[in-house]
C-alpha cells in the first residue's frame, strides 16, 4: 500500500494519499485547496489515478480541494452521510467499505465534532480519525451542530474499541505528532483519561475557544465542494 501523510502548515491539516501500488488507484482524504497543485503533482509523479476525494466532515478551518481535483482528474467526491453537500457525487454510510484497488476503507460514524463525521479504517490496521480524535486531544464541539456527549460516545464506543495496535492518523496536529495508536490514546489522551461522560461534556463546554479564522468562508465553500462563493 502506498500511504502518504501530507501537511498544510497554515491550517495544521493532514491530508492522506492512499493508493494500491498494483492497480495505481488512489484516494485523497481531507484535501486542502491551497495544496491542490502539490497533491496533483505527487499523484502524477507516482503514476496514480485519483479515484476518490473523500472527506471526514465539512471542515470549518480550511477549504477542501475536492472540487478542483475533480475538475483536474475526474475523481468522485464523497462525503459522510447526512453532510449538507449537494454537489458531492455521493454520500458514504456507516459500515460501508470503499475499495481502492485491493485496499479496503471502512467508514465508521464518529459524530460529535460535527453531526455528520466519519473516521475511516484502512485495511484494518490504521484509522483516519479526522477531528473526532487527535493525538492527545480531540476536535472541539461548540459549532456545526457539535455535541460533546456524542463525541465522547463516538470515541469510546467506536474508536477505543478498535484493536490496541491500530495506528491513529488524525486530521490535525498542533504539537508535531504524526501518528499514535489506539492503546496510546486510551492511556494518555488527557481529554478522555480519567473523565466520565458528564465530566467530558463539562470540560468541552468550558473550553471557550476562538472561532477558526477561516470559518466564515470555509463552511459555505465546503458545502459547495470547495468552490469559493463570490459575492458582489
Automatic annotation (TrEMBL):
Keywords noted in UniProt: Acetylation, Dioxygenase, Iron, Metal-binding, Oxidoreductase, Transit peptide
UniProt cofactor(s): Fe(2+)
GO terms, molecular function: metal ion binding; sulfur dioxygenase activity
CDD domains attached to this UniProt entry: POD-like_MBL-fold
A Pfam family recorded for this sequence: Lactamase_B
Keyword Ribonucleoprotein: no
InterPro entries for the chain: Metallo-B-lactamas, Mito_Persulfide_Diox, POD-like_MBL-fold, RibonucZ/Hydroxyglut_hydro
SMART domains cross-referenced by the UniProt entry: Lactamase_B
Origin: domain of life: Bacteria
Domain Metallo-beta-lactamase: 12-172
Family according to the record: Belongs to the metallo-beta-lactamase superfamily. Glyoxalase II family.
Protein name: MBL fold metallo-hydrolase
Phylogenetic lineage: Bacteria, Bacillati, Cyanobacteriota, Cyanophyceae, Oculatellales
Amino acid at each position: 500500500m502506498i500511504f502518504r501523510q501530507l501537511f498544510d502548515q497554515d491550517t495544521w491539516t493532514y491530508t492522506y494519499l492512499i493508493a494500491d501500488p498494483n492497480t495505481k488507484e488512489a484516494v485523497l482524504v481531507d484535501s486542502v485547496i491551497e495544496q491542490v497543485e502539490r497533491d496533483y503533482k505527487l499523484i502524477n509523479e507516482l503514476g496514480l489515478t485519483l479515484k476518490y476525494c473523500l472527506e471526514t466532515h465539512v471542515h470549518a478551518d480550511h477549504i477542501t480541494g475536492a472540487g478542483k481535483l475533480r475538475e483536474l482528474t475526474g475523481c468522485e467526491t464523497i462525503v459522510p452521510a447526512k453532510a449538507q453537500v449537494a454537489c458531492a457525487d455521493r454520500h458514504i454510510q456507516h459500515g460501508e467499505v470503499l475499495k481502492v484497488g485491493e485496499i479496503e476503507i471502512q467508514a465508521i460514524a464518529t459524530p460529535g465534532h460535527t453531526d455528520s463525521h466519519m473516521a475511516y479504517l484502512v485495511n484494518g490496521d490504521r484509522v483516519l480519525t479526522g477531528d473526532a480524535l487527535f493525538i492527545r486531544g480531540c476536535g472541539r464541539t461548540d459549532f456545526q451542530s457539535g455535541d460533546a456527549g456524542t463525541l465522547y460516545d463516538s470515541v469510546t464506543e467506536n474508536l477505543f474499541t478498535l484493536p490496541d495496535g491500530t495506528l491513529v492518523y488524525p486530521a490535525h496536529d498542533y504539537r508535531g505528532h504524526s501518528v499514535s495508536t489506539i492503546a496510546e490514546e486510551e492511556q494518555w489522551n488527557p481529554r478522555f483519561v480519567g473523565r466520565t461522560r458528564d465530566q467530558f461534556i463539562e470540560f468541552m463546554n468550558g473550553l471557550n475557544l476562538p472561532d477558526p479564522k477561516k470559518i466564515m468562508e470555509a463552511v459555505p465553500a465546503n458545502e459547495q465542494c470547495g468552490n469559493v462563493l463570490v459575492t458582489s
